[in-house]
Write a structure and sequence with these properties.
It contains 8 helices and 9 strands. Helix 5 packs antiparallel against helix 8.
Length: about 260
């Protein structure tokens, strides 16, 4: 069995894990020994790769299945409500049953020392927003990637899953040039509003200045609020029941923005 350091019960903040990762790397360099593992359950943390309103994302290793994954640790303040946890589990089970090339694959959801985590497919690539700013893109290129994103969204709708927060930051392009849609309904499940109900509804949340723009940020910490204002349909603002049409509105806003 591999030697490792498990997440402490008192580690209620991601910075504790970050400190453990940094200390393990420092010890390895100074002592010239293999780096001590930092574990969350059976997953071995490798590095922090992003953060957002929902939680902190780490690249991790699933040694049992010999694969790299993205591990999202949900902020404690979001998951303290047992009903919110139940909604997330319901959403996650629906997502786990959905297998589509244009939807990020959810591997597992669970708890480690009372901390809720989501293990999902690791995608090595940019978000659609980052992709669009890397260089000038032709209309054909933009349409092609949005067709893929729309195909993934349509597959989710056919399975009874609504995203509730579709935007270019919740879509990534992998090293294989395949587009995947991320974070279906999970933020909304943590903070469901009056019209969100309890039915089905990114490893790629980045630490950057853009995430502080209130129009471009999904405020997962606000009770009853789910969505990103710049991409929300009027009915979503009003607290009406969301459905596939809500996602279609967000999709059209994102496509218009890209063009």
């Amino acid at each position: 069995m591999e030697q490792g350091v498990e997440m402490e019960p008192s580690a209620s903040r991601p910075r504790r894990l970050d400190s453990q990762l940094q200390l393990a790397a420092l010890r390895a360099r100074v002592l010239e020994t293999p780096r001590e593992d930092v574990m969350v359950g059976r997953f071995r943390l490798l590095e922090r790769i992003g953060a957002g309103g929902m939680g902190v994302v780490y690249a991790a290793r699933d040694d049992a299945l010999h694969r790299r994954i993205a591990l999202k640790l949900i902020h404690d303040e979001l998951a303290d409500d047992p009903r919110a946890r139940a909604r997330v589990l319901s959403e996650a089970r629906a997502l786990a049953r959905l297998s589509h090339p244009n939807v990020v694959q959810l591997h597992e959801i669970g708890e480690h020392r009372s901390r809720l985590f989501i293990a999902m497919e690791y995608i090595n690539g940019p978000t659609l927003r980052e992709w669009a700013t890397q260089r000038a893109r032709s209309v054909r290129e933009i349409i092609d990637v949005y067709i893929q994103a729309g195909t993934g969204l349509a597959a989710a709708h056919a399975a009874g899953i609504v995203h509730r927060d579709f935007k270019c930051d919740n879509v990534m392009i992998g090293a294989d040039d395949r587009v995947r849609v991320l974070d279906f309904g999970l933020v909304s499940a943590l903070r469901a509003g009056p019209g969100d109900g309890d039915g089905p509804a990114r490893p790629g949340e980045r630490d950057d200045a853009r995430t502080r723009d209130p129009l471009l940020t999904s405020d997962a910490t606000a009770p009853g609020f789910a969505g990103t204002p710049a991409y929300m349909a009027a009915g979503q603002f009003a607290g009406s029941t969301v459905d596939a049409r809500t996602d279609q509105f967000g999709f059209c806003v994102a496509l218009h923005e890209a063009l």
